[in-house]
Amino acid sequence: MSTVLQLPKAVEDSILQSTRASRRVFLKGSGALVITLSVAALPGTDGFAAEPATSGPYPDPDFLQLDTWIVIHPDNTATFYVGKTDGGQGTGTAYRQMMCEELDIAYDRTSLIMGCTDITPDQGGSGGSDGVERDGWAMRRVSAEARRVLLDLGGQHLGVPVEMLAVSNATIALKSDASKKVTYAELIGGKRFNVAVTGRNVDSIAVKAAVKPVGEMRVVGQSLKRYDIPGKVDGSSKWAVDMKLPGMVHARNVRPPLAGATLQRIDESSVADVPGFIRVISRGNYVAVICQREEQAIRAARQLKVEWKAPATAPFPASADLFDYMRRATPTVTSEPQVQGDMAAALAGAAHVIEAEYEVPFQGHTAIGPAHALADPSNGQMTIYSNDMKAYGLRNGVARFLEMPREKVRVVYMDGPQVYGRTAADDAGFEAAFLAREMGRPVRMQWMRDEETGWDTKGPPYVFRLRGGVDARGKVVALEYDACSADHNHLGYNEPDTVLIAQLMGRRPERPSRGSAEAPSVMYDIPNRRTTTRIVGLPMTWETPLRTGNLRDPNGPQVTFAFESFVDELAAAAKADPVQFRLDMLQGASEDAVFRKARSLAVVNAAAKTYGWEARPSPKSPAAARGNLLTGRGIAYTYRGNTIAATIAEVEVNRQTGQVRVKRLVCAHDCGLAINPDGLRHTVECGMLHALSRALWEEVQFDTRKVTSVDWATSPTLRHSDTPDVIDVVLVNGDPNPGRPDLPHYGAGETSHKPLIAAVANAIYDATGTRLRRPPFRKERVLAALKAARV
Amino acid sequence: MSNVKLNVNGAMHEVDVDPSTPLLYVLRNDLDLHGPRFGCGLGQCSVCTVIIDGVAVRSCITPVSAVRGEVTTLEGLAKDGKLHPLQQAWIEEQAAQCGYCQNGQIMTAKALLDRNPNPSDAEIRTAMDGALCRCMTYYRVQAAIKRVVRGTTASGAVK
After folding, report:
1. Residue range B96-108: mean pLDDT, rounded
2. Cis-peptide, bond into residue A57, ω within 30° of zero
């Protein structure tokens, strides 16, 4: 049977297997026949005529058609199509649960296809922890609408008004007589709904049906097992990295050895002896080698002799001098100061005034699997197999980059290594597509480890200066916050003039994006405040490995580290318990539309209660401690969007070696309605541990010419031995407003990542009385600080 | 290029490759075994781990010509359609996030339990320390290993 998608059979099989999808076939009699995925004939599909094969173009699926989202199959199963992806947090399972809930069908009767630009509606791909929070609403609404349409059809079929019907697991029956029933499949299996919904865009979809109230939910709220894990533990899943096509060749990049170096000459004869060598392709400063086999391409890339000319001036300061450079640099953007109250008068009247500076270095994505993509230029089209979390953006960007009509470009999203924002998956997708067009055959691009760690986008470094005052009763009366980030060349997603290949080819936008430097997200009542932010650039803006991009809550971990550390410093100055100190500041706040005050209080209290927090000021009095192991605890709180988290870390610091070990973590977390509580817990756990890695280990290091942290030895990450003994995740999820029984579902991918570095720093202070104002807290830095403080 | 014979998951294969080719690329590209993955090419992360005669080996730095003995990959752990207890425990604990590194986690854990069926928590941490995960699933990976050590997986004891 022919297919519209024309996916290689291996991909079809893998998508179908991983999602347990059955084919998407519509009966010819009920409108145009569409087959988007098909494999060997399945039972119950005899007599279905096949659409002639097409090889593109690939128009956008119409998000206003119910049929774009949901297909009911003749065997009474369903396939859902959504424009999101799952970076490993189990969001695919959550989407299925939400859609099963509204459609009234059992989870194991459904499958899900995500992020394939020609068969799933464009929901923008993933990012910002908004998949469940925002895009889940469109999924719920179309599913509820499908249920409504099916109930209408069921009423007609059974000859009774809809009010007399009940639905259970894709079967409609009379409430009064369960033997009188009809299945979804009998009503519409294999046929189109041909029902349009309304809405200006995919986020504002409106339907006639009402979504279910929380009290009636049965599938949502269950900790169902993720559908994708079995294939990931038995090796049967097929990922973007596993894709192969007939005639495919392997590419490797040859990067400039120094940032800003310009290509002088390539000696192609230097790789003439490499078996399987096909070609060197270069354009501007972009160079890649193409070989028949993967190991040949690796060898050719290493062996190719390329003459580069170093830039006349240093592209950046060395990492050791970064913060001094940032302090001195002329800002590219300076915000208008946000002022509330009278700072000078408040500080003049304060009992204690303290001031502190904090620094956070560049930290990278450093994905466990280096970036990769496979591009197929067959039939004058371009298909890219990629794990890019913004498949639609990759499609549009590549179309512009290659100057192809976007209808001729499609992206097939497949599983991949973690994507916590703007990773190098974008860059690899563009490179594969460019090389595939040059070669006229499928090209697989795979970055090597040093490329991934050296050249991926980085979270921006920050320098903060905070000043604050507490009065004689221990109340914070004034707080001044100044943040400076080196985020001048911040890259967006899949921009055809900022992806690395475009930069190296000399294509670039008129000016870099604005970048950002953020203020903290807390509900504290502080009467007098002054907030200023600045952005600075490094000397080299383009063709540099120090390019910034979104990394898991792009500014949150840095900002919250500085702010919540300083709040702890104020608490210590006031000799107040750090939890009570925060609760007092929250108590004075005004409530907002999403009840962030009440929910913040609940979250901080829940964290303290779960931990067994003993009220006392920090530090714990290390002078009294015996032996080399000092223990302490620290708390930090913040929110991201509508989701709130408070984290407590318990640490053990070895004062002889400076080694910090986090023994226990507690996170109290409120993201509203939990779709899958266990999946949520795991995401919260991993969000914390990812931040623990940033707290203890991660830092991009560079000299004035190149990044020097390029593998797992020079760019260490958290390991098994660093894992806390106990992690407690408390889902506080509760809406204190009795007038609103329907809890919305908020996002959860990033919030737990945000306060953790501060919690660890505060715990180290509690244990040692020494304040660490710059992560990572590797033992050398901790030991130096302890020695300076004579701990 | 030359012919190299390999015993992988109980089956003999003959491939025509340069003898210096890392085992990883032969497994992935010639034998279509995608359990082992490329992570660093430096033997630093364990994502490419296979087991050769009971020992966890980094296939990204092992020349195919140096392989002696039977290679077991992630695909070879299940027997007679039944998952290995570690794989079952991974599902019970929902240990994966993205899952890219889980081959390295599972194969390293298998080599550990094969030589020490009853490791302490500290021994688990030490043995697993080279198996990196950037989603940071370590806590649940350790829980899954402990689940097998306790013998509480539905499938029964190891081996």
Report:
1. 98
2. yes
